[in-house]
Amino acid sequence: MIEFDYSIAESFIDSIHNASFYKDSLSFQHHLHYKAAKMYANAGIYNEATKYYDQAIQYAKEAKETNQQIKYLLAFSHAELNQGKLDMAIEKGFKASELALQIKDSVWLARAYNNIAESYRYHDQLDFAFDYNQKALAIAIHLNNHDLIGMTYNNMAAILGEQGKNQTAIDTLNNGLKLMNDDNNFAKAKFNSNLGFCYRNMGLFEEAMRHHKIALSYKRKAKMHSTLGYTFGAIGRAFQGLRMNDSAVFYTLKEYDHAKKYKDPYQLKDATVHVSHAYYDLGDFKRSVDYLVENIELEDSLSNVEIKQKSLLYQRKYDLSKKESEIERLKIEKDLEVSEKKYLSIGLFSSLMVLALIAIIFQLRSKKRAQSKKILEMQLASVKQENEQNKLALSNYTKELMLKNQRLMSLDQEVEAKEAELTEMRNSKAEELDQLSEMKLLTVQDWVKFKTLFEKIYPQFFDRLNTAKISFTKGEKRLMALMKLQMENFEIADTLGISSESVAKSKFRLKKKLNEIDSTSLEDFVHHS
Length: 529
Hints:
Blueprint: H1 6-19, H2 26-42, H3 46-62, H4 66-82, H5 86-103, H6 106-122, H7 126-143, H8 146-162, H9 166-179, H10 185-201, H11 205-221, H12 228-241, H13 245-261, H14 265-282, H15 285-331, H16 336-404, H17 411-438, H18 444-457, H19 461-466, H20 474-484, H21 489-496, H22 500-515, H23 522-528
Helix pairs in contact: 1-2, 2-3, 3-4, 4-5, 4-6, 5-6, 6-7, 6-8, 7-8, 8-9, 8-10, 9-10, 10-11, 10-12, 11-12, 12-13, 12-14, 13-14, 14-15, 15-16, 17-18, 21-22
């Protein structure tokens, strides 16, 4: 991996200082500040990058070079996105779109809309993301700008992938790749990363790994060194899907080391979770718990930073309010009644700020308790697995004894053995039902495991759905399987990793679809399937 060259950065800084000697050097200054900001951002040194982005934008504004101002705002937005500052990223994207509208530049407007869509996608607000992506695509098609159309398809595919429409997303990405220029390594890296993401969601882990490795190659060509860790983690999760657990641990540890090297706490937080899961699948529960504990500590650390930032923001707002009140008091010194109202407003504002801080601290403590609970659940799962293995060994041994003594047993003993076997089978079915009720269907691998257990209990269920007059989607089959287990909406939502409202909407659409063919209610249909 290429190290950050501070000597190059220092030469840029010297150039910036030398440029300040020229009175008419605004264009030169904003160009150099932008170069320095990009260099620091690529190296993951975002505090320095932020400083130079702000100065580059200000110089471009003073030079009245709006196009450059938009360019710098979008680059700054991308850097904010990499730091997890989603609100700041969206804010800068909107500023860029407003400037593009002012100068009536359609290309920059489409790029700004693409940026806003990407920020909303990271914010999990997929409806807004799709709307802005559609706006960007309409402009790009009108301009017949192939490079811009390709980038818009990439964003759209990412949204479709997160909505579970993986094949549609793959088709969109392949169409977009055909439109990209050969030298656009940055775009090709993003396209292949998203292709890998979609294939992994579909359970095609070998294809996912191939695209992630291609993305890794293009990222290196584009000098996107600070983002290589995400790709290492994606490759590790592909190996995890293939149950090649040693390789999964190797690549997730590379992601972890990369995040540490670039001192990126948000990437490090994600990497600790990935390493923990890889060690868990490998059967090394101690290391799995160790990395999960580190993840909780990182969560707390980041939360504390956020509290400090919010505290400083509230303090600045309070100081500003206090200064404004003081100026007002001096202007109307004789009017004591008005002055008393101002001080009262400040006191109320301060009280509200304190209450807000208390609420934030309470929320963070709740999050920490949830993480601690997750550790205990993982440890319990380890113990439960060991108990299940012991039960299986005991059961096998008992069956061997039964076979050896079978000829000597009387008819009554045979009846008792059959009853014991029936009781054992019922208990086994109960355990399988418990496992089904507790399982969360977040990935393709989870669904495969769930389906295997489910079919042991209801072996004909999916065959009946497949031979029904109505063609059901995979999502509808999953929903009906959970309804078959008599789960409530909130339990189904927790299992699928979606909201209760989404479950209710899905049931409504399924009922409507069923009523077009048959008057049978959804509940009766599921019960008799």
